[in-house]
Amino acid sequence: MANSQTPVTVTLTGAGGQIGYALLFRIASGQMLGADVPVRLRLLEIPQGLKAAEGAALELQDAAFPLLAGVDVTDDATAAFDGVNVALLVGARPRGPGMERADLLAANGGIFGPQGAAINAGAADDVRVVVVGNPANTNALIASAHAPDVPAERFTALTRLDHNRALGQLAAALDAPVGGLRDVTIWGNHSASQYPDVSHATLDGAPVLPLLAERLGGADAAERWLAEEFIPRVAKRGAEIIEVRGSSSVGSAASATIDHVRDWVGGTSPGAGWTSVALPSDGSYGVPEGLISSFPVESVDGQLRIVQGLAVSKFSRARIDASVAELAGERDAVRALGLL
Ligand code: NAD
Ligand code: LMR
Asked: In this protein, which residues make up the domain named Lactate/malate dehydrogenase N-terminal (predicted)?
């Protein structure tokens, strides 16, 4: 990453959209990369989205952020990713009426393949990529497959939103502040099959499972709450937000993206526990190598590392396996479409 005098180049795709708008002002104010790190923004849109991105660029100028070294708006992926240090791939094709799953994967392959190739052609050596646009894990796999010169571990997908959602639900159930909780894990896919796991979580250093049992009337009641309320609530929270607000999450998704990059670049704080990141599996925890799956992850010296040696119960194993099977199915589908 550049030193504090050289601007870091951040490329944001889908910059004219909802999450893009929520992200831009936080990036430009230093909340993602640090209060002393200048940033150059490259906003990539499709032609229909250019006006919205240009409007956001005008507003960025009006906000007079001292850290903002420049803003370029373009619909040319090669120009957008030239010299990029941090790539936020937010723009994606939403599922339309009558679209089958294979249609969605194919439409997004048409976006993430060329963007991966543009990253391969022009990115800085230290490039870090986070895919937010859905289906995020498989879109990241496609982008990575088109960037053979970029180490695969630089391609990640966002499950920090799911991680934060799990913290929020757990804090509410325990009537405790979020800040005392640590070591929650999201495993698998950013989809309803994901497994939010609290079996290693602690509150102020105390394991949460006995605390839940105490509050909910015993260990059986706590297990029931986890299986029937907590896990589905977190896993289907995206759908709940769509139902309640009429469109998918924006502020929380942007906030999680900021958290993801901040922790990757700056490190997870020692003592603050791990986070969740979808990254290429190295075979840990029985997840087939290469699948972009969410794991418990620490960031040390700018590198993401899967936390090793955690005990995995039978209950957890079945749920991890189910989500990983879905990821393998998506990989096989995009491979069959010639996108890998
Ligand atoms: P949005 O429709 O408001 O904005 C998307 C923008 O992307 C649009 O402006 C569109 O023009 C642009 N776009 C489309 N194709 C593009 C391309 N090839 N290059 C550049 N830009 C392109 O949507 P949003 O609310 O900002 O959500 C964006 C994506 O993030 C969606 O796929 C959504 O499902 C996903 N999402 C993911 C998470 C997560 O946790 N991983 C959470 C929330 C939303
Ligand atoms: C979310 O988790 O809020 C989104 O991924 C939901 C969606 O389908 O956009």
From this structure: 9-148
Q: Which of 123, 157, 191 is the last residue of a domain?
A: 157
pLDDT digits (tens, 9 = 90+) for 30-89: 999 999 999 999 999 999 999 999 999 999 999 999 999 999 999 999 999 999 999 999
Are the beta carbons of 22 and 256 closer than 8 angstroms?
A: no
For ligand 2, whether the C-beta of 74 sits within 6 Å is no
The verdict on residue 2 lying in a domain is: no
Residue corresponding to tokens 């995009």: 334
Q: Give ipTM to 2 decimals.
A: 0.99
**pLDDT tens digits for range 82-109:** 999 999 999 998 777 777 777 888 899 9
Tell me the C-alpha distance between 155 and 135, whole Å: 14
Token pair belonging to 151? 């180490």
CA distances from 149 to 113, 141, 207 (A): 14, 14, 43
User: Domain range for residue 215?
Assistant: 160-337
Instruction: List the beta bridge partners of residue 292.
Output: 280
Specify burial of residue 284 (Cβ count, 10 A radius: 0-12, 13-18, 19+).
Answer: middle
Atom of ligand 1 lying closest to residue 190 CA: 41
Residue stretches of the annotated binding site for NAD(+): 14-20, 108, 115, 132-134
**CB-CB contact of 128 with 85 (8 Å):** yes
pTM: 0.97
- Same structural domain, 167 and 236: yes
The answer to the question of residue 1 being in a domain is: no
